Amino acid sequence: MDYITDPRAIESKSMDIIDGLLGPLPISEGERKVIKRVVHTTGDPEFAKLVRWSDGAVSTGITALARGASVYTDVNMVRVGVNSRLLAGKGADAVCAISEPRVIAEAQRTGKTRAMTAFELLAPEMDGAVIAIGNAPTALFHLLSMVKEGRCRPALIVGTPVGFVGAAESKEALTEADVPFITVRGNKGGSTVAAAIVNAMLLQMP
């Protein structure tokens, strides 16, 4: 059996197949590339119907990343999934504090989740940053509270928590917040989806 072994050829053929599956969509080319990357990562064309963003969110994210915005994540799975080489080329990094001793100690003291606590402690650093939340609805809810209180102002929030407890609700709250966002509706999502969205924007940087 013959099969393709060149990684670039595999990805190129995959994207061509996805293009055909998606067909025409009333969105920009940059937005289409985000959807294609999510479908490519999940192997699920149904995600094309679930991705949502605020007006201009994709271009806002690309601009922020191109000027050197760092990416702050709720879990290390998102952090390691983000293209660190492209970030480093702009002098930026992917940051996740969930395993830091100060976060663990504070979470134990307060009884809050470590994801919430990490964003609480990182808030002073997150103005103008891209936030990518792929796992924890509590982190997204808490981040939105901090944004509403004026404690931080990210350039963009990518929120794709997955699961059956608070995930869909946290993403719905994101769509109603006064901040640029990219999300997916319902219970689907996850760390790989959050990383895929960020990578789709990184790959479009000038």
How would you summarize the topology of this molecule?
Blueprint: H1 7-22, H2 29-42, E1 51-53, H3 57-66, E2 71-73, H4 76-81, H5 84-88, E3 94-95, H6 101-110, H7 114-122, E4 130-133, H8 137-148, E5 156-159, H9 167-175, E6 181-184, H10 191-202
Parallel strand pairs: 2-3, 2-4, 4-5, 5-6
Antiparallel strand pairs: 1-6
Helix pairs in contact: 1-2, 2-10, 6-7, 7-8, 8-9
Protein name: Precorrin isomerase
Family: Belongs to the CobH/CbiC family.
InterPro entries: Cbl_synth_CobH/CbiC, CobH/CbiC_sf
Structure in words:
The chain is an alpha/beta fold. It has one domain (7-202): Cobalamin biosynthesis CobH/CbiC, precorrin-8X methylmutase (Rossmann fold), CATH 3.40.50. The chain is 50% helix and 10% strand. The chain has ten helices and six strands, in the order ααβαβααβααβαβαβα. It has helices at 7-22, 29-42, 57-66, 76-81, 84-88, 101-110, 114-122, 137-148, 167-175, 191-202; strands spanning 51-53, 71-73, 94-95, 130-133, 156-159, 181-184. It has a six-stranded mixed β-sheet with strand order 1-6-5-4-2-3, with helices on both faces. Helix 2 (29-42) runs antiparallel to helix 10 and helix 6 packs across helix 7 (114-122). The chain is globular.
Q: Keywords for this structure?
A:
206 residues, alpha/beta, Rossmann fold, six-stranded mixed β-sheet, 6 strands, precorrin-8X methylmutase activity
